[in-house]
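Continuing from yesterday's entry. The apo prediction looked reasonable, so today I'm repeating it with guanosine-5'-triphosphate included to see how the binding region is handled. Same sequence as before; SMILES copied from the compound registry.
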Amino acid sequence: MSLSIGIVGLPNSGKSTLFNALLKRQIAQVGEYPYTTIEPNVGVVEVPDERLDKISEISGITKKVPAGIKFIDIAGLIKNAHKGEGLGNKFLGHIREVDAIVHIVRAFDSSASSGQAIPHVMSNIDPVRDIEVVNLELELAGIKKPAIYVLNVSESDLKRDFNLPFEYIKISAKLEAELSDLSEKEQKEYLKELGVSESALDQIILVSYKLLDLITLFTIAGGRQIQAWPIKKGTKATGAAEMVHTDFEKKFIKAEVVSFEDFVSNNGWKGSREKGKTRIEGREYIVKDGDIMEFKI
Ligand SMILES: Nc1nc2c(ncn2[C@@H]2O[C@H](COP(=O)(O)OP(=O)(O)OP(=O)(O)O)[C@@H](O)[C@H]2O)c(=O)[nH]1
Ligand SMILES: [Mg+2]
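Holo prediction written out below.
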C-alpha cells in the first residue's frame, strides 16, 4: 500500500503528538522545543470500520485485519521554507511525496503559567495566520494536495466554538495521546465526561481515507480471517485480486461477490447464495465499497 497522508504544520503545533495518538503508542519524539522532528516518522494507522465486526459476528471468524493507511509525521514548516529557511527544502520534499495532507494548527496556549512553556514560532496563538503561513509556503513550493485542517486545542477548550473561517476537526492531541494507554472503552468514557462524543482521532482517520479516495473491500480468506482492504475508487477486480496476492492478477478466473448489506441481511455467504444475492464477476468488474469478494484462481 503506497498511498500516504502527511501531517503538516508549523513547528510545535503538535504534529508528533497527533501522530503518536493515531498510532496509539509512542513512536515519535515529542518536545517543547521547535524542530524536535527532523526525519519523518512513518506508521500505519488502523482504519475503524464496524462492518468488520459485523462480518466477524455473522461468520463466526474472530480474526480480523483492519485496513491501514500510512501517516507520515513531517518536520515543521516556517515562513520562507520555500527559500530553504529552516531546512524548508528538505521538509517540503517530504511533503511532495505524500498524497494528502492533515494540516495541524495550534490553538492550545501554553505559557509558563500553565506548566511547561511551549514556544510558538510566530510568538502568539493565531490559527488563521498560521494556516496562511503554511499554505503560502506550500503554494510557493508548487505543492497542491487534498487537505484537512485539524485544530489542536487545550483539553479545557474542547467544547469551545472557535468561529474560524474554515472547516476543521477539533482535537486535543496531547490528551488523546495520553489516553492511548487506556482501553478503547475507558477512552470513550473519559472523552464523554469532557463532552466529546465522537472520537476526533477516528474522524481524522476516516476523513483522511476519503481524501485518498479509498474504499473498502472485504475478504474472508479460507474461513480463517476477515480482512478489510483499502482500494482506490474505480479499481477493477483484477487490481483488487493483485493486492490480495501478487499472483492473483495473472491467475484470476472470476470473483464471487456479495455486498455487505446483503451479507448481513441473509446471514452470511450461504444464505446470500440461497437468496441469489451473490454474483460472479469478471476481470473488468469495478469493485464497490463494502463488497465482500472471493477470488477464484
Ligand atoms: N498543552 C498542550 N500541549 C500540547 C498539545 N499538543 C502538543 N503539545 C505540546 O507541544 C509541544 C510540541 O509538540 P510536538 O508534538 O513535538 O510538536 P511538533 O509539531 O511535532 O513539533 P516539531 O517536530 O518540533 O515541529 C510538546 O511539548 C507537546 O507536549 C496540546 O493539545 N496541549
Ligand atoms: Mg514533531
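Comparison notes:
- The chain has two domains: 4-47+68-211, 234-296.
- The first helix runs from residue 15 to 23.
Will overlay with the apo model tomorrow.
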